[in-house]
Design a protein that fits this description.
The chain is an all-alpha fold and 149 residues long. The protein contains 6 helices and no strands.
Length: 149
């Protein structure tokens, strides 16, 4: 069986071609919908499972619209979007180093602080900058988001 080539960090020269602060902002904005939908599914499911006495399902209300169907459709819409993004993430992760995968999960998807990421990577906060920049550039290139200097 052929040996799989392990991904590497981008060289500093390659990373310097990108306007990192602007690229980071665009990448985080791109993933804000994913984070929002993930939170929405959880929120909708929690409110849906609350007791009937609060009439959260709308069974006892006199409204003409059907809130249960609306919730179900919103859950389906959110879950389909999340599922399609998760498939793309799976392919993207093959192109990331182990450190970049952690940065992707903790910085882009979950919005943890640099201190938390540095702790997870067992590195000093100042040592994660190139790894983080490399991760953001790879993610941006994968999703065709490119902002050069």
């Amino acid at each position: 069986m052929p040996k799989v080539k392990e991904p590497k960090l981008y060289a500093k020269e390659v990373l310097d071609e990108y306007n990192y602060p602007q690229l980071k902002g665009v990448v985080l904005d791109y993933f804000s919908k994913y984070r929002s939908y993930s939170a929405k599914v959880e929120e909708i499911c929690v409110s849906y499972s609350s007791p009937l006495s609060s009439d959260s399902m709308g069974i006892f209300s006199s409204n003409i619209s059907d809130p249960t169907s609306k919730r179900a459709l919103k859950i389906i819409e959110c879950k389909e979007y999340i599922e399609s993004m998760n498939k793309q993430f799976k392919a993207l992760r093959l192109k990331l180093t182990a450190d970049e995968k952690i940065i992707f999960n903790y910085s882009i998807l979950s919005r943890h602080t640099d201190e938390e990421i540095a702790e997870k990577l067992s590195l000093d906060k100042s040592n994660i900058y190139l790894r983080k920049k490399s991760c953001y550039v790879k993610v941006a290139k994968y999703f065709h988001i490119e902002i050069f200097n």
